[in-house]
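Weekly modeling sync, notes
Attendees: S.R. (lead), two postdocs, one rotation student

Agenda item 3: backlog of single-chain predictions. S.R. asked that every request posted to the team notebook include the full sequence so nobody has to chase files. The rotation student volunteered to paste the first one in as an example of the format we agreed on. Action items at the bottom.

Example entry:
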Amino acid sequence: MNTFSKIPVTIVTGFLGAGKTTLIRHVLEHAKGRRLALIVNEFGDIGVDGEILRACGIESCSEENIVELANGCLCCTVADDFLPAIEALISHEKRPEHIIVETSGLALPKPLVKAFDWPSVRARLTVDGVIAVVDGAAVAAGRFADDPAAVLAQREADQAVDHDNPLEEVYEDQLLCADLVVLNKADLLDEATQTKVLAEITASLPRAVKIVPTRDGVIDPAVLLGLMAAAEDDLANRPSHHDTETEHDHDDFDSFVVDIGATRDPDALLAQLQTIVAAHDILRIKGFVEVMGKPMRLLVQGVGARFRSHFDRAWAQGEPRRSRLVVIGEKGLDRAAILRALAA
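Predicted structure, as returned to the notebook:
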Protein backbone atom coordinates (compact mmCIF):
# COMPACT_ATOMS: atom_id res chain seq x y z
CA MET A 1 0.00 0.00 0.00
CA ASN A 2 1.58 3.30 -1.01
CA THR A 3 1.57 6.48 1.06
CA PHE A 4 -1.22 8.11 -0.92
CA SER A 5 -3.68 5.30 -0.14
CA LYS A 6 -3.27 5.84 3.57
CA ILE A 7 -5.33 8.24 5.69
CA PRO A 8 -3.18 11.33 6.31
CA VAL A 9 -2.84 12.56 9.89
CA THR A 10 -1.85 16.10 10.87
CA ILE A 11 -0.42 16.58 14.36
CA VAL A 12 -0.92 20.07 15.78
CA THR A 13 1.45 20.83 18.63
CA GLY A 14 2.39 23.99 20.44
CA PHE A 15 3.00 25.47 23.84
CA LEU A 16 0.18 26.36 26.21
CA GLY A 17 -2.01 29.14 24.88
CA ALA A 18 -0.34 29.34 21.49
CA GLY A 19 -3.69 29.09 19.71
CA LYS A 20 -3.96 25.45 18.62
CA THR A 21 -7.69 25.15 19.33
CA THR A 22 -8.48 28.40 17.51
CA LEU A 23 -6.52 27.26 14.46
CA ILE A 24 -8.20 23.83 14.40
CA ARG A 25 -11.62 25.39 14.84
CA HIS A 26 -10.95 27.52 11.75
CA VAL A 27 -9.97 24.41 9.78
CA LEU A 28 -13.14 22.58 10.83
CA GLU A 29 -15.33 25.56 9.93
CA HIS A 30 -13.78 25.66 6.45
CA ALA A 31 -13.73 21.93 5.74
CA LYS A 32 -15.93 22.49 2.64
CA GLY A 33 -17.46 19.04 2.81
CA ARG A 34 -14.21 17.22 3.42
CA ARG A 35 -14.60 14.43 6.00
CA LEU A 36 -12.19 15.37 8.75
CA ALA A 37 -11.72 13.73 12.14
CA LEU A 38 -10.36 15.49 15.21
CA ILE A 39 -8.66 13.90 18.20
CA VAL A 40 -8.20 16.22 21.18
CA ASN A 41 -5.72 15.18 23.87
CA GLU A 42 -5.85 17.64 26.75
CA PHE A 43 -3.67 18.32 29.80
CA GLY A 44 -5.93 19.26 32.68
CA ASP A 45 -8.92 17.85 34.49
CA ILE A 46 -11.82 19.34 32.54
CA GLY A 47 -12.39 19.54 28.82
CA VAL A 48 -12.16 23.27 28.37
CA ASP A 49 -10.73 22.98 24.85
CA GLY A 50 -13.57 20.67 23.87
CA GLU A 51 -15.97 23.22 25.34
CA ILE A 52 -14.41 25.95 23.22
CA LEU A 53 -15.04 23.88 20.11
CA ARG A 54 -18.63 23.35 21.24
CA ALA A 55 -19.09 27.06 21.79
CA CYS A 56 -18.37 27.79 18.13
CA GLY A 57 -21.54 26.04 17.02
CA ILE A 58 -19.76 22.74 16.44
CA GLU A 59 -21.39 19.95 18.39
CA SER A 60 -18.63 18.29 20.36
CA CYS A 61 -17.92 14.93 21.88
CA SER A 62 -17.72 13.18 25.20
CA GLU A 63 -14.65 11.31 26.39
CA GLU A 64 -16.50 8.02 25.88
CA ASN A 65 -17.82 8.47 22.36
CA ILE A 66 -16.86 9.48 18.87
CA VAL A 67 -19.61 11.71 17.53
CA GLU A 68 -20.42 13.50 14.33
CA LEU A 69 -19.89 17.26 14.35
CA ALA A 70 -22.40 19.68 12.93
CA ASN A 71 -20.28 20.11 9.79
CA GLY A 72 -20.06 16.37 9.10
CA CYS A 73 -16.64 15.93 10.70
CA LEU A 74 -15.95 13.53 13.55
CA CYS A 75 -14.50 14.31 16.96
CA CYS A 76 -13.28 12.41 19.99
CA THR A 77 -11.23 13.12 23.10
CA VAL A 78 -8.63 10.80 24.54
CA ALA A 79 -6.47 10.62 27.64
CA ASP A 80 -4.22 7.56 27.50
CA ASP A 81 -6.01 5.45 24.88
CA PHE A 82 -4.76 7.15 21.74
CA LEU A 83 -4.33 4.08 19.55
CA PRO A 84 -7.79 2.65 20.37
CA ALA A 85 -9.24 6.04 19.41
CA ILE A 86 -7.40 5.88 16.10
CA GLU A 87 -8.71 2.36 15.52
CA ALA A 88 -12.26 3.49 16.25
CA LEU A 89 -12.01 6.40 13.86
CA ILE A 90 -10.67 4.47 10.89
CA SER A 91 -13.24 1.72 11.38
CA HIS A 92 -16.11 4.23 11.68
CA GLU A 93 -18.84 3.91 9.05
CA LYS A 94 -18.01 7.44 7.91
CA ARG A 95 -14.30 6.85 7.44
CA PRO A 96 -12.44 10.18 7.62
CA GLU A 97 -10.41 11.53 4.72
CA HIS A 98 -7.99 13.28 7.07
CA ILE A 99 -7.36 13.11 10.83
CA ILE A 100 -6.19 16.07 12.91
CA VAL A 101 -4.63 15.42 16.32
CA GLU A 102 -4.46 18.30 18.80
CA THR A 103 -1.84 17.47 21.41
CA SER A 104 -1.76 18.96 24.87
CA GLY A 105 0.40 22.04 25.33
CA LEU A 106 2.94 19.98 27.26
CA ALA A 107 3.19 17.07 24.84
CA LEU A 108 6.33 16.09 22.98
CA PRO A 109 5.36 15.40 19.36
CA LYS A 110 8.11 12.94 18.46
CA PRO A 111 6.83 10.04 20.66
CA LEU A 112 3.44 10.49 19.03
CA VAL A 113 4.99 10.38 15.55
CA LYS A 114 6.80 7.18 16.59
CA ALA A 115 3.45 5.58 17.37
CA PHE A 116 2.57 5.83 13.68
CA ASP A 117 5.58 3.67 12.87
CA TRP A 118 3.92 0.66 14.48
CA PRO A 119 3.11 -1.99 11.82
CA SER A 120 -0.60 -2.09 12.68
CA VAL A 121 -0.84 1.68 12.23
CA ARG A 122 1.56 2.57 9.42
CA ALA A 123 -0.19 0.24 7.00
CA ARG A 124 -3.28 2.45 7.16
CA LEU A 125 -2.09 5.89 8.30
CA THR A 126 0.69 8.34 7.55
CA VAL A 127 1.71 11.51 9.39
CA ASP A 128 1.00 14.13 6.74
CA GLY A 129 2.75 16.77 8.80
CA VAL A 130 3.54 18.14 12.26
CA ILE A 131 2.32 21.72 12.74
CA ALA A 132 3.96 23.70 15.56
CA VAL A 133 1.88 26.68 16.67
CA VAL A 134 3.98 29.38 18.33
CA ASP A 135 2.79 32.28 20.47
CA GLY A 136 4.66 35.09 18.72
CA ALA A 137 4.15 37.61 21.51
CA ALA A 138 5.45 35.19 24.15
CA VAL A 139 8.59 34.40 22.17
CA ALA A 140 9.18 38.11 21.55
CA ALA A 141 8.95 38.69 25.30
CA GLY A 142 11.81 36.24 25.87
CA ARG A 143 9.76 33.46 27.38
CA PHE A 144 12.25 30.97 25.89
CA ALA A 145 16.00 31.21 25.42
CA ASP A 146 17.23 32.54 22.08
CA ASP A 147 20.86 31.39 22.54
CA PRO A 148 21.16 27.91 24.15
CA ALA A 149 24.95 28.27 24.42
CA ALA A 150 24.61 31.52 26.36
CA VAL A 151 22.03 29.97 28.65
CA LEU A 152 24.31 27.01 29.28
CA ALA A 153 27.19 29.36 30.15
CA GLN A 154 24.94 31.32 32.50
CA ARG A 155 23.77 28.14 34.23
CA GLU A 156 27.34 26.94 34.74
CA ALA A 157 28.39 30.33 36.10
CA ASP A 158 25.44 30.80 38.45
CA GLN A 159 24.71 27.91 40.79
CA ALA A 160 21.45 29.58 41.79
CA VAL A 161 20.05 29.00 38.29
CA ASP A 162 18.05 25.83 37.79
CA HIS A 163 20.04 23.53 35.50
CA ASP A 164 16.89 22.02 34.03
CA ASN A 165 14.32 24.02 32.10
CA PRO A 166 11.60 21.59 31.00
CA LEU A 167 9.44 24.31 29.45
CA GLU A 168 12.21 25.43 27.15
CA GLU A 169 12.88 21.82 26.15
CA VAL A 170 9.22 21.17 25.38
CA TYR A 171 9.07 24.29 23.22
CA GLU A 172 12.27 23.39 21.37
CA ASP A 173 11.20 19.77 20.84
CA GLN A 174 7.96 20.96 19.27
CA LEU A 175 9.90 23.13 16.82
CA LEU A 176 12.47 20.41 16.09
CA CYS A 177 9.73 18.00 15.02
CA ALA A 178 7.76 20.48 12.90
CA ASP A 179 7.11 20.39 9.16
CA LEU A 180 5.40 23.80 9.33
CA VAL A 181 5.56 26.51 12.01
CA VAL A 182 2.57 28.79 12.50
CA LEU A 183 3.64 32.06 14.13
CA ASN A 184 0.34 32.99 15.74
CA LYS A 185 -0.62 36.35 17.24
CA ALA A 186 1.61 38.05 14.68
CA ASP A 187 -0.68 41.09 14.89
CA LEU A 188 0.74 41.77 18.36
CA LEU A 189 4.23 42.27 16.89
CA ASP A 190 5.57 45.25 15.02
CA GLU A 191 7.50 44.59 11.82
CA ALA A 192 10.95 44.71 13.41
CA THR A 193 9.96 42.40 16.27
CA GLN A 194 8.33 39.92 13.93
CA THR A 195 11.45 39.83 11.77
CA LYS A 196 13.56 39.16 14.87
CA VAL A 197 11.25 36.35 16.09
CA LEU A 198 11.19 34.73 12.64
CA ALA A 199 15.00 34.77 12.56
CA GLU A 200 15.22 33.22 16.02
CA ILE A 201 12.83 30.41 15.16
CA THR A 202 14.56 29.76 11.82
CA ALA A 203 17.92 29.50 13.59
CA SER A 204 16.55 26.83 15.94
CA LEU A 205 15.08 24.63 13.20
CA PRO A 206 17.20 21.63 12.09
CA ARG A 207 16.08 21.82 8.46
CA ALA A 208 14.26 24.10 6.05
CA VAL A 209 10.77 24.59 7.45
CA LYS A 210 8.26 27.21 6.34
CA ILE A 211 7.08 29.70 8.98
CA VAL A 212 3.65 31.26 8.40
CA PRO A 213 2.61 34.34 10.45
CA THR A 214 -1.09 34.33 11.38
CA ARG A 215 -3.62 36.23 13.43
CA ASP A 216 -6.17 34.37 15.56
CA GLY A 217 -5.24 31.09 13.87
CA VAL A 218 -6.78 32.14 10.55
CA ILE A 219 -5.03 30.15 7.84
CA ASP A 220 -6.22 28.38 4.70
CA PRO A 221 -6.64 24.65 5.48
CA ALA A 222 -4.87 23.94 2.19
CA VAL A 223 -1.69 25.33 3.76
CA LEU A 224 -1.89 22.95 6.72
CA LEU A 225 -3.24 19.78 5.12
CA GLY A 226 -1.56 17.86 2.33
CA LEU A 227 2.11 18.35 3.28
CA MET A 228 2.81 14.64 2.56
CA ALA A 229 5.76 14.65 4.98
CA ALA A 230 5.45 10.95 5.97
CA ALA A 231 7.01 12.01 9.28
CA GLU A 232 7.04 8.44 10.60
CA ASP A 233 9.73 7.68 8.00
CA ASP A 234 11.73 10.78 8.89
CA LEU A 235 12.33 10.39 12.63
CA ALA A 236 16.12 10.66 12.32
CA ASN A 237 15.78 14.24 11.05
CA ARG A 238 13.63 15.26 14.01
CA PRO A 239 16.01 15.50 16.99
CA SER A 240 14.66 15.72 20.54
CA HIS A 241 16.03 16.50 23.96
CA HIS A 242 14.38 13.30 25.13
CA ASP A 243 15.67 10.86 22.49
CA THR A 244 17.56 8.84 25.13
CA GLU A 245 14.60 8.57 27.49
CA THR A 246 12.46 5.46 27.56
CA GLU A 247 9.37 7.50 28.39
CA HIS A 248 8.30 11.02 29.21
CA ASP A 249 5.69 12.28 31.60
CA HIS A 250 4.47 15.60 32.91
CA ASP A 251 5.95 15.38 36.40
CA ASP A 252 7.54 18.80 35.82
CA PHE A 253 4.07 20.38 35.88
CA ASP A 254 1.12 20.64 38.20
CA SER A 255 -2.50 21.02 37.16
CA PHE A 256 -5.62 21.36 39.26
CA VAL A 257 -9.21 22.54 38.94
CA VAL A 258 -10.71 25.15 41.22
CA ASP A 259 -14.38 26.07 41.62
CA ILE A 260 -14.96 29.77 42.24
CA GLY A 261 -18.08 31.77 42.89
CA ALA A 262 -19.97 33.82 40.36
CA THR A 263 -18.49 37.25 39.70
CA ARG A 264 -20.15 40.64 39.47
CA ASP A 265 -17.18 42.31 37.80
CA PRO A 266 -15.30 40.35 35.08
CA ASP A 267 -12.60 43.04 34.82
CA ALA A 268 -11.91 42.79 38.54
CA LEU A 269 -11.70 39.01 38.24
CA LEU A 270 -9.16 39.23 35.42
CA ALA A 271 -7.11 41.73 37.43
CA GLN A 272 -7.20 39.33 40.39
CA LEU A 273 -6.03 36.46 38.19
CA GLN A 274 -3.19 38.57 36.78
CA THR A 275 -2.04 39.33 40.34
CA ILE A 276 -2.15 35.65 41.25
CA VAL A 277 -0.18 34.66 38.14
CA ALA A 278 2.48 37.26 38.95
CA ALA A 279 2.90 35.82 42.46
CA HIS A 280 3.08 32.13 41.49
CA ASP A 281 4.68 29.87 38.85
CA ILE A 282 1.45 29.69 36.85
CA LEU A 283 1.68 29.11 33.11
CA ARG A 284 -1.96 28.94 32.13
CA ILE A 285 -5.45 29.56 33.53
CA LYS A 286 -8.51 28.67 31.50
CA GLY A 287 -12.15 28.00 32.26
CA PHE A 288 -15.71 29.26 32.38
CA VAL A 289 -17.23 31.75 34.81
CA GLU A 290 -20.76 32.81 35.72
CA VAL A 291 -21.31 36.56 35.66
CA MET A 292 -24.19 37.62 37.90
CA GLY A 293 -27.15 38.95 35.97
CA LYS A 294 -25.85 37.69 32.64
CA PRO A 295 -27.52 34.85 30.70
CA MET A 296 -24.25 33.88 29.02
CA ARG A 297 -21.15 32.22 30.43
CA LEU A 298 -17.77 33.93 30.32
CA LEU A 299 -14.84 32.10 28.73
CA VAL A 300 -11.55 33.05 30.41
CA GLN A 301 -8.12 32.21 28.99
CA GLY A 302 -4.81 33.36 30.39
CA VAL A 303 -1.26 32.73 29.22
CA GLY A 304 1.23 34.18 31.64
CA ALA A 305 0.03 37.68 32.52
CA ARG A 306 -2.05 38.04 29.32
CA PHE A 307 -5.76 37.33 29.73
CA ARG A 308 -8.61 37.29 27.26
CA SER A 309 -12.31 36.78 27.94
CA HIS A 310 -15.60 36.83 26.10
CA PHE A 311 -19.14 35.53 26.48
CA ASP A 312 -19.17 32.37 24.37
CA ARG A 313 -22.74 31.08 24.69
CA ALA A 314 -25.88 31.18 26.81
CA TRP A 315 -26.17 28.82 29.75
CA ALA A 316 -28.33 25.88 28.69
CA GLN A 317 -31.64 25.30 30.43
CA GLY A 318 -31.00 23.15 33.49
CA GLU A 319 -27.22 23.44 33.12
CA PRO A 320 -25.43 24.04 36.45
CA ARG A 321 -23.87 27.50 36.36
CA ARG A 322 -20.52 26.42 37.72
CA SER A 323 -17.51 28.69 37.59
CA ARG A 324 -14.47 26.45 37.13
CA LEU A 325 -10.87 27.22 36.23
CA VAL A 326 -7.98 24.94 35.29
CA VAL A 327 -4.67 26.15 36.73
CA ILE A 328 -1.48 24.81 35.11
CA GLY A 329 2.02 25.63 36.25
CA GLU A 330 5.49 24.57 37.26
CA LYS A 331 5.91 21.59 39.57
CA GLY A 332 5.43 22.60 43.19
CA LEU A 333 2.62 25.10 42.74
CA ASP A 334 1.43 26.38 46.12
CA ARG A 335 -2.13 25.24 45.63
CA ALA A 336 -3.30 26.36 49.07
CA ALA A 337 -1.95 29.89 48.56
CA ILE A 338 -3.54 30.12 45.10
CA LEU A 339 -6.89 28.96 46.46
CA ARG A 340 -6.69 31.54 49.27
CA ALA A 341 -5.91 34.26 46.74
CA LEU A 342 -8.85 33.25 44.57
CA ALA A 343 -11.16 33.27 47.58
CA ALA A 344 -10.03 36.75 48.65
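Discussion: group reviewed the output briefly. The mean pLDDT is 77.
Action items: rotation student to repeat for the remaining queue; S.R. to check formatting next week.
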